[in-house]
Amino acid sequence: MPALAPAEIKALIKLIDELDYYQILEVSRDAPASAIKSGYYAVSRRYHPDANRALRGEVRRNLEHVAKRVTEAYSVLRDARRRLAYDGQLTKDRQAVRIQLAEADSQAEKKALEDHLGTTPNGRRFFSLARADIDRNHLDSAIRNLQMALTYEPSNQFFKQKLRDLKGHPSG
Amino acid sequence: MAEIAIGIDLGTSNSCVSIARGGTVEVLANAYGEHITASVVAFDEEGCVTVGNAAKANVIHDPVNTVSSAKRLIGRYFFSEEVKKAQAVYSYGIVEGPDHSLRIQIRDEQLSLPEISAIVLREMKTIAEEQLGQEVHKAVITVPAYFNDNQRQATKDAGRIAGLEVLRLLNEPTAAALAYGFGRGLSQRVAVYDLGGGTFDISVLEIGKDIFEVLSTCGDTYLGGDDFDDRLIDLIADEFVAGEGINLRNDPFALEKLKVAVETAKKGLSIEDQVEIRIPDIVTGPDGQPRSIERSIGRPEYFALVTDLVQRTFKVCDEALQQANVIAQDLGGVILVGGSTRLPVIRDAVRDYFQQEPKADVDPDEVVAMGAAIHAASLSSTDQQDSFLLDVTPLSLRIGVAGGLAETVIERNTPVPIEQTRTFTTYQDFQETVKIRVFQGESRQAEENEMLGQFEFSGFKKARRGEVRIDVTFEINSDGIVNVTACDQETGQQASTQITLSSGLSEEEISQIIDDGRTERVRTSDATAADSPAPVAASSPAPPAEEELSEDLELLPDQEDLLEEAPDLEIDEEDYSSPLAAEAEEEDADPNAATQPELEPLAVDSAPEIAAEVELETDDLRATAAENLQEIQPPVGDSGIQIDDMDGSPDDELEVQTGAESLFDTPGADLSQPDDESEL
User: Fold this and answer.
1) Is residue B578 classed as helix, strand or coil in its secondary structure?
2) I want to staple B5 with a disulfide (CB 3.0 to 4.6 A). Which of B46, B138, B484, B548 is the partner?
């Protein structure tokens, strides 16, 4: 791999604050987890400070800055819950290309809590029915109620996970 | 030719040095032809030192002047638990130095822990130089993955004192994985189970063709082979008290003999089903007659003694696998590192836990040094690197906030290098300074974490509470150095600190030690004895790092009035321009103030646990750390629930917000998932 030229790093430094995490890792918005990892590897091969040991002084500091943004991008996108929070932020404001990890975590927590409760009256109602079914071990009925809950809240990750768990169990 | 760089495994019990060149890795033998050298330093009457197995043999004759297991103490404060434990176990003098630091008392001389480790490192350097026939100036030194920044800095200092440029401190399990994957073209996930003399580490890594990615690292710095030995020592010593009425623990010579016998027995049990422990004339009774110990111990009895220790390692393994998001079946290999993993009780338990045979073709005593050598060669080579390492930070970095709590800024197992910023605001009207305290560890209780350092930040505009915005940025560079910067958003006023251990050595002290050649007195010829340096008094020059701190502390008396009014600082989650959030913040201001008294009892509750520590906190530095002089409050909706960005109905907002407050009131109860997940 050719080492980076100082000019290339300078250009990158200017650019990096405007790039979103997908652009930094050079992957598409719908990239699967495996692509995010290989994107991280590919970008690291170029920008990791250890891969550019010959660089010194300001250029090196700049490179550290780039590398930090790369690991930040990876830390968000590799985690499904952080990624969801980040996608939400990007959709709302295309310029908001950074999210602090703690912020992503707290948004994910919030989302998880909302999802646990349900965010619509009908979603909540069917989900509580499903839970009652689970307590009585009426799994078929629980699946039906969860599917109903999901028709009201199609993007509720928690409901989806519950449904997957239930379907994974043999009925009865 | 590129300058040569070695890899050193600086172990608690043993050290090992290795070199990678020309595509092969070689462990370098000492003058006795041994691949491993005991990390033991013995001081004779002239102040000269012997290092290695000869020193280890000296323990029995002169336990008070022979220092072993220094790694358990390096980078620790005098008041730490580990130090109390060590004082009970080791016969050499462990005394308090300036600023709660540790010193080893040898006759009338006091040495810092980095100096002791430097003596061992210098020995390893010499071994390499003799084998290679050339001078060595560069090295990669390994540390337990779970070493905190204080321990790392102290180890780095030891390297410098030993005359080595430390290219990198490499985590031991990572080093083992590097050595395991070296030249094999593997593509798999592996777990490295590292049970050394004093610490336990587990790392999960992904080995690719040119990249080693650390997925997670967890550990326990209070668990190692020494603890296994302690169990057997206790058993025998207790039996001796019961049978003879003599406590061997009170006799340094008897205790050392017992330790040696126990270690031999442990090693014997790796091969035999039953071993004899025989210590003739271990002690002289009150009647003037010598007493002896003769006892046999079998594997089942030994296993029963240590089984809970073994199980403790698997709790840590559970964490590591979970953090790496893998299950045991995903692993292509399990690598055992550390002498303790030779014990059948460990091997069997590891096999059961990971459901696979551990790799047999890895020497647990040498693999870490070999990995360090591979990394050293790679970092010092002028060619483009053929492979490199993507590492994580093993411990969470935290900032001290109100109520004696510590907020996470960079979570453990986050890849490095990384930089994270959180925004804080003042808690009092017209507050002039804030104290930024930096912790490392996994507890929400500040006191349960290791304090890395603290600094005062002032110079921002005087304003009403909540109006000042202070960005606190935590950085971990690729060489693992932690930096913390505070910046006022409005004025751009900045203050920063490179975190330095407040009980560590200052630049000045290190230079002094190097100039005095205090660690260069290996017993080789009489000449060295002649010019052995005069003992240096404990009151060595004040460290510059401390000066910086004391400058800060000097500010304190002026601030005392202000402080007594309990000015707190409140973290404020960055307002992502949502008007709702701004409103919420205003609403929150009072409830937040109200939570303050409620948080106080929490600190009181935790007091008994830290009582011993607090008693020792007599001087200003720790006192300021212990008292909530100037604090920072957790962000609004710290429990992870914020009301901005909510798309739901107003009802939902209210509901979630209420939830947020109740969680906030009971820290510790937050972040837990509702139980129903496990119901399924």
Assistant:
1) coil
2) B138
